[in-house]
């Protein structure tokens, strides 16, 4: 078990992160700051578990009221829950569980968090997005874009996965070699290429960036990835994954408590950690 953050180890409200690994996660820091600012006696701990069944077992055993789910359990945990909301079911992944009297309900706040962040930045309706990657985050991105009236084109290394995602959710897909022929309002990287500790990598050749006036990287560590630095140099407007990360966490807190979380405070502690100790 990782370090816990919160007001009291005897807290009535216990929340947790489940994944593998979890040691690098900023969720305990961010949620702990939110609960402290809200004046809630809540504890948020991180558990590294080996399989999805351990997630639901521990939630029930420990009376955990709400859980964040991260890699690699977002998809495998779905079948183990009592209920999954319609958006998470369509995406096929859950990153949030709430426990109401032993009944476990799954949600996907990667989607609502991304929607809020994109609306704050560029808007979604009537815009076209190229989504790099076809994993869980890409599925959440495509679902979010289509639902808000935007268009999405998926491009992925494993072409079959791009084709499947596009078929499931109803968008276009293209081959990696075709990216230079695509025009879009915004490119979103949902691959982990460029994430700490491999911060010298980038998912896209810099010569291709001129096709995209805006580039978002879902990666938030580092805040300024190589992709974003090269995009800025090519004249693109850029957005890191920090805003989405904060909003997906804040939406979890709202689902669990019914209260509006302190988003600015959550962003402040995340940026302080990321910018103060680069590479952590
Ligand atoms: P995932 O399900 O494992 O999917 C990763 C995708 O990236 C796959 O499509 C994979 O392609 C592609 N990929 C991985 N390595 C590659 C490489 N070397 N070359 C080309 N393509 C590669 O992971 P995920 O859950 O979608 O998460 C992806 C990223 O999003 C992570 O960095 C995660 O931290 C970030 N994320 C951020 C937030 C946020 O709040 N900011 C939220 C969720 C996720 P193949 O299909 O070919 O394997």
Question: Which features would summarize this protein structure in a list?
Answer:
6-stranded parallel beta sheet, about 280 residues, alpha/beta, globular, 13 strands, binds NADP nicotinamide-adenine-dinucleotide phosphate
Structure description:
The protein has 280 residues and is of the alpha/beta class. Helix content is 37%, strand content 20%. It has nine helices and 13 strands. It has helices at 27-38, 52-62, 86-91, 109-121, 136-147, 159-169, 226-233, 242-257, 263-276, and strands at 5-6, 13-19, 42-48, 66-69, 83-84, 96-100, 103-107, 128-132, 151-155, 172-174, 186-189, 214-217, 237-239. Strands 1-3-2-4-6-7-5 form a seven-stranded mixed β-sheet, with helices on both faces. Strands 10-9-8-11-12-13 form a six-stranded parallel β-sheet, sandwiched between helices. Helix 1 (27-38) packs across helix 8, helix 1 packs antiparallel against helix 9 and helix 4 packs across helix 8 (242-257). The longest helix is centred in the C-terminal third of the chain and has 16 residues, at 242-257. The protein starts with a strand and ends with a helix. Mean pLDDT is 94; it is low at 1-11. It binds NADP nicotinamide-adenine-dinucleotide phosphate (NAP). NADP nicotinamide-adenine-dinucleotide phosphate binds at residues 71, 110, 113, 133-138, 156-158, 161, 190-193, 195, 218-220, 241, 244-245, 248.
């Amino acid at each position: 078990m990782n370090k816990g953050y919160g007001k009291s180890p005897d807290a009535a409200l216990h929340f947790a992160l489940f994944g593998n690994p979890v040691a690098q996660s900023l969720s305990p820091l961010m949620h702990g700051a939110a609960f402290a600012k809200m004046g809630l006696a809540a504890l948020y701990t991180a558990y590294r578990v080996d399989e999805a069944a351990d997630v639901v077992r521990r939630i029930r055993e420990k009376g955990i009221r709400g859980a964040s789910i991260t890699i690699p359990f977002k998809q495998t945990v779905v079948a183990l829950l009592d209920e999954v909301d319609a958006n998470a079911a369509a995406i096929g992944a859950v990153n949030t569980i709430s426990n109401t009297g032993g009944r476990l309900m799954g949600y996907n706040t990667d989607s609502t968090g991304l929607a809020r962040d994109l609306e704050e930045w560029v808007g979604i309706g009537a815009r076209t997005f190229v989504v790099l990657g076809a994993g869980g985050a890409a599925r959440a991105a495509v679902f979010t874009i289509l639902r808000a009236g935007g268009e999405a084109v998926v491009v992925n290394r494993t072409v079959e996965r791009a084709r499947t995602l596009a078929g499931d959710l109803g968008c276009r897909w293209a081959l990696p070699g075709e990216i230079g022929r695509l025009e879009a309002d915004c490119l979103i990287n949902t691959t982990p290429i460029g994430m700490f500790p491999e911060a010298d990598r980038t998912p896209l050749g810099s010569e291709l960036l001129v096709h995209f006036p805006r580039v978002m990287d879902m990666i938030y560590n580092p805040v300024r990835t190589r992709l974003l630095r090269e995009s800025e140099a090519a004249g693109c407007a850029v957005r890191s994954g920090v805003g989405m990360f904060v909003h997906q966490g804040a939406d979890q807190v709202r689902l669990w408590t019914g209260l509006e979380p302190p988003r600015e405070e959550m962003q402040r502690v995340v940026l302080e950690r990321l910018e103060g100790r680069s590479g952590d």
